[in-house]
Amino acid sequence: MKNILAIIRGRLSYFAVAIFLSAFSLMAAIGLLACSAWLISMASTRPPVLVLEVAIVSVRFFGLSRGVVKYASRIVEHKAALGAQSDLRVRIYENLTHRTSQELLAVRRGAAIQVVVGDVETLQDLWLRVASPWISAVIAGVAGVGIIYSLLPIAGEIVGGLFALACFAVPLLSSFASGSRHQRRLESEIFDQIMQATTMVEEAMIFDFDKRLLQEIDSKQISIAEIESRNARKSGLGSAAYVKLLGLAILLAIICAINGFHNHHLAGINVAVIILLPLAIFDGLSTLPNAFSHIAKIWDAKRVLEPSLQLFPEEPTFDYVTAPHHATLTLTNMQPLLPGVSLAPFSGEAKPGAPLIIRGRSGAGKSSLIHALIGFIDFTGEADLGGVNVRDLDPSTFTTMLQDDHIFATSIRENIKIGKPSAGDREIMQILEVVELADLINQLPGGLDTLVGEAGHNFSGGEKQRIKLARMLLRNTEVFLLDEPFEYLDAHQAERLTKKVLGVLSTKTVVMVSHTY
Q: Is the pTM of this model over 0.70?
């Protein structure tokens, strides 16, 4: 909880204001009921109108302020909750950026999505549905019990005791109905399976395992439904305790009020006040059975989130070295370090006009070499650019095209402008001419505004590869690292594009992994 509180520290004042406003709204309801009961009772005695004026104004004040203040409290608490939600998600993303590529490979996509989306939203209920309502109910309830105690101490003690019991018994009984870790594990597995079903739908249909995948999702969904059904039956314990304690408080309040009136300890006009106030006092607890029935799920979300919210020490500023122009990249016995894998050392040289082409069998470590140069993994040996260690170079020295570069579900223009955000349509079309995509784009009704679709599904593999090439060619850096840039292209087109791309990059230092050149 320490990490969570540290992240949302700036929002705590908003939560405090929201709790105060919510408590004031509940107290306004208590005041409204008390004043209304007193006003009706007093009006039956037909006193002078001036005697009723204060009560009449009070009823109006409490009646109007209750709704206004409640609305204000909802705005403030949701502003705080949504802000805290954003802060937590930003921290999760920052946490991911501190992980190595090997650590990221171990992260299941379904589990990551559940943490970022589901667990953060579930944790939000801790203050929206549990903490804030409970604290507000306690504050308002104490005020209401104080009114009863001031009129008839014995009734205040009894109602106050029952209210205190309800404040703890209702949450305790309701928490027994909370979901289990088994439910969360099932939900995480469903996330993973839905990801598979949506991202590999074509393969699922081709190899006829889509029905089996859907059956597994249905099976887990049925298991979750059974868990929730059992929890719903258990959550009735909290609701039953709330209703019984409320009923008992009203019954004992009636008995105390009657005895107090007969013993001349209570004025007749206050009998209705004593009898009706428990309804308003206990009203703030009405939402707690349902809220606390999710407490274990909320706590489990907190447990899962904690590692993803680790506060990293601020990284020391590092003065990167500016890359020398037109320098030679020299690799000497460079060996990428992968756990459990031993790769052969590599030596080579790349300079402007003389690219370094790396070829070899699959699994020889060609892509790992590129990953090591850009700092994704560590390496032994030496790698320097113009005498400067690559580890000391500004990351903007490199433009990298990896095998699994992402195509975003947006327009062609926006995908290509990632390489150079300031690029205009004319410059983009010139680059598309180089990668032989201009004619195709011109024929499309939407032109550069055409959506590529999720993972680029509106285009073929070769067309997506050329969009990535165009994006890469817009960059202006000293070194270009290309991992299988002509994948999915036929041999003749790959040969043409190789000459065009290397011509555009003739003044740059180029390292290229390729099976076709």
A: no
